[in-house]
Amino acid sequence: MKGYIYTMYAGADPGMGWNLTDPIFGKIPTLGACMPNIRRSVTTGDYIFSISGRVLNVKQYIVGGFEVDEKLDALTAYDKFPEYRMEKDEHGSLKGNIIIDQNGNHLDFDYHTNFETRINNYVVGKNPIFLDDKKSIDKAREETIDILNYLFNKKEDSVHKIIGRWRKIDTSQINDLISWFKEVRNRSNL
Q1: Mean pLDDT of 171-176
Q2: C-alpha to C-alpha distance for 71 and 142, rounded to whole angstroms
Q3: Stretch 20-39: mean pLDDT, rounded?
Q4: If we measure between CA atoms, which residue out of 75, 79, 68, 88 comes closest to residue 28?
Q5: In sequence order, what DSSP letters do the residues of 151-169 get, joined into one string?
Q6: Among residues 11, 15, 26, 129, which one has the least CA distance to residue 61?
Q7: Count of helix runs (H) and strand runs (E) in the chain
Q8: Which of 42, 178, 183, 185 is the most buried (most CB within 10 A)?
Q9: Nearest-angstrom CA–CA distance, 25 and 34
Q10: pLDDT per position as a tens digit, 146-165
């Protein structure tokens, strides 16, 4: 078992009210358009974890993760997950991570580049673990640098200095992250 941990793009912080376009932690967790390099590299049983993007004067935090259950092509995902088809709401905001139409064509309002690298390896997950309440998110913001330094044997002061944009993790690091998530939740409920 292996996994990857990556940082979402600048401003992508669910704890600050940012809505995830990609339903990474939906009813069924998926990763469909973002991070094609990670989606290409994972196999069933691997894990993917996400860190909030940078926001001015706000500490980043590890948002959550999930186990990879299967990988699909975009047309199969289009049929299997109609609720995850990308669409614009009445305010012009995008929602969903299936970036094709029923014929497999790139949606004209999707912002992703390199379309051909994004239509394969639609990742479907299971066993999601994520933080969605204020107390847990606040604790995670305080502890994320410490847990990342521990996992990667570093002594840095920022997420970027520890992992860059993304980094591979091994079984031990995955288990430590899952334990940390459970501890953060438990301590937040005290």
Answers
A1: 98
A2: 34
A3: 82
A4: 68
A5: HHT---SSHHHHHTTEEEE
A6: 15
A7: 6, 8
A8: 42
A9: 14
A10: 999 999 999 999 999 999 99
Q: Are strands 47-51 and 87-88 parallel, antiparallel or unpaired?
A: unpaired
What contacts 162, CB < 8 A, 6 or more positions away?
145, 148, 149, 152, 154, 156
Whether the per-residue pLDDT at 8 is higher than 70: the answer is yes
Cα–Cα distances (Å) from 157 to 26, 59, 161, 163, in that order, read 31, 11, 7, 11
pLDDT higher than 70, residue 79: yes
Half-sphere exposure of 113 (CA within 13 A, CB side): 0
Q: Give phi and psi for 171, each to the nearest 5.
A: -55, -45
Q: Which of 18, 9, 86, 19 is nearest to 54 (CA)?
A: 9
DSSP one-letter string for 3-53? EEEEEPPTT--GGGTPPPSS-TTSSS-EE-SS-HHHHHH--TT-EEEEEPP
State the first-to-last Cα distance of the chain, in angstroms, to the nearest integer: 33
The values of phi and psi at residue 69, to 5°, are -100, -40
Position 153 scores a pLDDT of 98
Sign (positive or negative) of CA dihedral 146, 152, 157, 158: negative
